[in-house]
């Protein structure tokens, strides 16, 4: 169990957001590709950083691309933010696909059943 701090000890604790958790999102979202090294440029897990990257890009109307590589025992993360509309331009124009024509199946004419009139005798 943790140790309870005295009021004088507690007053010395700074709960302000640390610099370590603050990232320069605006600079990284300029459309260029950046190489980030875990433990140097960011200090959280890669999955956590990727979620934050996607979230921050989405808030700016962008898509966040990431790629992970291991170099010399260090994990490197490549990131790039692109405008959502620019992705469509890279893929090229969408092909217009004509809707499939659904032909009604010809139904066989109903067979006429010859009914024999039954004579009713009284």
Q: Helix segment count? A: 4
How is the biggest beta sheet arranged?
Answer: 3 strands, antiparallel
Q: Can you count the beta strands?
A: 3
First-residue to last-residue Cα separation: 107 Å
Topology (elements, then pairings):
Elements: H1 7-11, H2 25-28, E1 33-37, H3 46-59, E2 62-71, E3 74-83, H4 84-91
What would you note in describing this structure?
The chain is an alpha+beta fold and 122 residues long. The protein has a domain at 20-86. Helices cover 25% and strands 20% of the residues. The protein contains four helices and three strands, in the order H-H-E-H-E-E-H. The longest helix is centred in the middle third of the chain and has 14 residues, at 46-59. The chain starts with 6 loop residues before the first helix and ends in a 31-residue tail after the last helix.
Provide a brief overview of the structure.
With 122 residues, the protein is an alpha+beta fold. Helices cover 25% and strands 20% of the residues.
């Amino acid at each position: 169990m943790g140790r309870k701090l005295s009021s004088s000890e507690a007053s010395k604790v700074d709960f302000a957001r640390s610099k370590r958790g603050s990232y320069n999102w605006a600079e990284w979202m300029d459309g260029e590709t950046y190489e980030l090294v875990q433990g140097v440029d960011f200090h959280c897990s890669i999955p956590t950083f990727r979620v934050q990257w996607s979230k921050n890009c989405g808030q700016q109307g962008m898509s966040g691309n990431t790629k992970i590589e291991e170099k010399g025992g260090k994990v490197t993360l490549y990131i790039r933010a692109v405008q959502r509309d620019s992705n469509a331009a890279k893929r090229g124009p969408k092909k217009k696909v004509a809707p499939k024509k659904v032909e009604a199946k010809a139904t066989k004419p109903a067979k006429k059943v010859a009914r024999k009139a039954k004579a009713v005798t009284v």
